[in-house]
Design a protein that fits this description.
209 residues, tt1808, chain A, six-stranded mixed β-sheet, 16 strands, globular
Length: 209
C-alpha cells in the first residue's frame, strides 16, 4: 500500500503507485478529482482509495453468475439488481462513496447528486463483493464495516474467488446485530433477503478450483 498526498488523475500515473493507493482528503477534494480520474476511485474513512488489479476471469464469471441468480430470484419481487458501475453514497459521521460488485435495491432507487450529472444510490438492501487477492482484506474488513453501517442494508455477501465459500451477514434488528453464516459445500443453500436462496453448486458451476 502506498500513501500519497495528491491523487494522480491519469491511469499511467496511477499505475506507478502499486496495487493500493490511499490519500487522506476532504470530501470536496474527492469530488474535484472524481470526474478527472481515468480509473475508479472510492471515498470512505476520510480517504480517497484506489485498489487496482486485473480482474480475473473467475472473478468476472462469479459476478456475472451472481447477478443472474439474483435477477432470476428477485425480479418478480420488486427488486432491481445492478453491477459494479453503480455508485453508492452513504453519510454517517462522514460522507462516503462506494462501488460494490453487485447491488440490490428494493423498489425505486433513492439518489443524491454528488456532482452535476453524477448521481449515487443511497438505499441498497443487499451488497455483494467477490473477493480477489488484491481486494480481499479491504472488502472483508474495512468495506464490510462501512456497508453494515448503511441503515438500508439488510444483507452483505462476500464471495470467495479462490475456493468455494460464501459468507453472509444478515441484519438482525431484534437483536441489534448481524447473523454470520459461512457456506462452503456445493449443496449449501444461501438465503437471500428472505425471498429465496441459491446453492453454491449453482454459483460455482462453471468454475474448477
Amino acid at each position: 500500500m502506498e500513501v500519497a498526498t495528491t491523487i494522480p488523475t491519469k491511469l499511467e500515473e496511477r499505475l506507478e503507485h502499486g496495487t493500493e493507493l490511499r490519500i487522506a482528503a476532504s470530501w470536496e477534494t474527492f469530488l474535484s478529482a472524481l470526474p478527472e480520474c481515468e480509473y475508479r476511485v472510492e471515498y470512505y474513512g476520510g480517504e480517497i482509495i484506489s485498489i487496482m488489479g486485473q480482474a480475473s476471469e473467475i472473478h468476472e464469471l462469479i459476478v456475472a453468475t451472481m447477478i443472474k441468480l439474483l435477477g432470476n430470484m428477485l425480479d418478480d419481487e420488486g427488486y432491481n439488481v445492478y453491477g459494479s458501475n453503480l455508485p453508492l453514497y452513504a453519510e454517517n459521521s462522514q460522507k462516503n462513496y462506494y462501488n460494490a460488485d453487485c447491488t440490490v435495491v428494493k423498489g425505486g432507487s433513492e439518489k443524491v447528486e454528488v456532482l452535476p450529472g453524477t448521481q449515487a444510490v443511497t438505499n441498497p438492501v443487499l451488497l455483494v463483493e467477490v473477493l480477489s487477492p488484491s481486494t480481499q482484506k479491504e472488502d472483508s474488513l474495512t468495506k464490510l464495516n462501512h456497508y453494515r453501517s448503511i441503515s438500508s442494508v439488510q444483507q452483505v455477501l462476500l464471495i470467495d474467488s479462490s475456493s468455494m465459500r460464501v459468507v453472509s451477514y444478515t441484519r438482525q434488528p431484534e437483536q441489534d446485530g448481524w447473523l454470520l453464516r459461512d457456506f462452503t459445500q456445493a449443496s449449501d443453500e444461501c438465503p437471500v433477503l428472505e425471498e429465496g436462496h441459491f446453492s453454491l453448486e449453482a454459483l460455482y458451476r462453471k468454475i474448477s478450483f
